[in-house]
Amino acid sequence: MVGKIEVTKLDLIQWQEYREIRLDALKSEPQAFLSTYDREVGWLDEKWISRLKETFSKGSWLLFAKGRLGLVGMIGGYRDSKDLENHTAQIWGVFVKSQERGKGIAKALMGAILKEFESEPDIETVILEVNTDQKSAQKLYETFDFIVTKTYRQKLGDGLEHTISEMRRLLKAKA
Fold first, then answer.
1. Is 95 exposed, middle or buried (0-12, 13-18, 19+ CB in 10 A)?
2. pLDDT digits 0-9 by tens, 133-156
3. What does the pLDDT look like over 77-106, one tens digit per residue?
4. Cα–Cα distance for residue pair 58/166, rounded to 1 Å
5. What are the residues facing 15 on neighbouring strands?
6. Which of 13, 61, 79, 95 is the most buried (most CB within 10 A)?
7. What is the pTM of this model?
8. Are 171 and 118 in contact (CB under 8 A)?
9. How close are the terminal C-alpha atoms of the chain, in Å?
10. What is the DSSP letter of 167?
């Protein structure tokens, strides 16, 4: 808990809460995501249910920060076949509502997902990508010992090309 914030997973019946915070993230911070609000707002209910259901399987995570008035933040993680080969996991979709920032919520979410990854014995490295214009996000990741491993240009959800930093963090050595 951070203040009155709980980091939690959602049940499938809460898919509409997931939809709401994901669309809020895409609309309010389009420069932070590959996808767009316009693309996802038209998804059918079944697509949202399916997306949330996917996070119940091994190799996929979706955690939420829940406050008194509902969801205020989220963070996701996944492993594709390349990650399984390379003993890595990816972080995606980090978001905290603007009015809730500066309260340690993103830090709590990051700590929680790293703990999830640490429970997987074959994950050695965690990878994420951040728009270099988002200085506070990059600073947060650096406090968790992520380091920039490469930079490149990419078009994001705002339709503009940005400089992106790939950041990596080694997990604690396995016993």
1. buried
2. 999 999 999 999 999 999 999 999
3. 999 999 999 999 999 999 999 999 999 999
4. 24
5. none
6. 95
7. 0.93
8. yes
9. 28
10. E
108 token code pair:
């709590």
6-170: CATH, from 3.40.50.2300, 3.10.20.30, 3.40.30.10, 3.40.630.30: 3.40.630.30
Domain boundaries, the chain: 6-170
DSSP per position, 52-121: HHHTTSTTEEEEEEEETTEEEEEEEEE--HHHHHHTEEEEEEEEE-GGGTTSSHHHHHHHHHHHHHHTST
Q: How far apart are CA 21 and CA 6, in angstroms?
A: 15
- Collapsing DSSP states into helix, strand and coil, what is residue 21? helix
The span from the CA of 172 to the CA of 124, in Å, is 8
